[in-house]
Amino acid sequence: MTGFFAKLKEGLGKTRASLLGRMRHVLSRGGVIDAASLEELEELLIAADLGVHTVTRLIDGLRRRTEGGERFDAARLTAAMREMIGEILRAGEAPLEVDRERPFVIMVIGVNGVGKTTTIAKLAAHYRGEGKKVLLAAGDTFRAAAIEQLEVWGTRAQVDLVKHQAGADSSAVLFDALQAARARGVDLLIADTAGRLHTRVNLMEELKKNKRVLRKQMERAPHEVLLVLDATNGQNAVQQAEQFSRELGVTGLALTKLDGTAKGGVIVNIIERLRLPVRFVGVGEGLRDLQPFVAEEFLAALFEEE
Ligand SMILES: Nc1nc2c(ncn2[C@@H]2O[C@H](COP(=O)(O)OP(=O)(O)OP(=O)(O)O)[C@@H](O)[C@H]2O)c(=O)[nH]1
Ligand SMILES: [Mg+2]
Prior knowledge:
elongated, binds guanosine-5'-triphosphate, alpha/beta, about 300 residues, 8-stranded mixed sheet, 12 helices, binds magnesium ion
């Protein structure tokens, strides 16, 4: 087992225990699935944050098959669930291609505390490790100490940063950063943004302006509008994703804090509801704790106990 996969598996431990535990519980009496246990399974899966819509689809599939005479014991139920969940996860797999244009601009957005700044640091370290020239833009000029926080991470990841003073216009920071990126032949510009303004409306308007300013200078920028979601938020993460993608045209997702939560199943719901690619998953607080989302790996980490 590679270190990478071990880390994902460890990170998904609580989600896996919750999901498999629920399935076992349903089968504990009769050993096979019947109409009553299907209903119970439905409730348990909804409680595991897979989302009503997704769970209904999964259960309907199982119901049709049991009615058609198939008998589901623990092994077959697990296999059927794995197959159905796998189909959804695969639809959400599309690795981020950052070599399309130079500089490739990633604008990182999301509500406060979800892990934007940490994710940016991890991305910077990841791409720098691939030999790319990375520049950061300190676009969160709103929250006290946000600039310093990004600076600390930038130093750790050994990448440069463009910043203005706290309270400055974030669009001006992004404009300058993009200009610097082009002048310096940077491969990848990653822009931090605010997570909190006075109201959510203000935040959306500010982010739209950020986007416009980048676009004015470079036709296809930002190439990626990466929405960061915190897996521990469960259903709230789904609502955030809906709002941000409606307002801002999100192009990809990063799902953080999968370690330490049993709510990792929310990824299934998010993919099914949003039809957006999950680019990365976060499984810890360190620089190396971000991984590209690979459906088969995620699925294996979710279903395989050994
Ligand atoms: N366990 C765990 N913690 C994480 C992960 N990603 C981020 N965090 C933690 O979440 C907290 C918030 O992270 P930030 O990166 O500051 O979040 P942010 O979205 O930039 O927050 P604001 O700047 O306030 O909007 C920090 O304590 C991070 O260490 C993860 O994948 N796993
Ligand atoms: Mg931040």
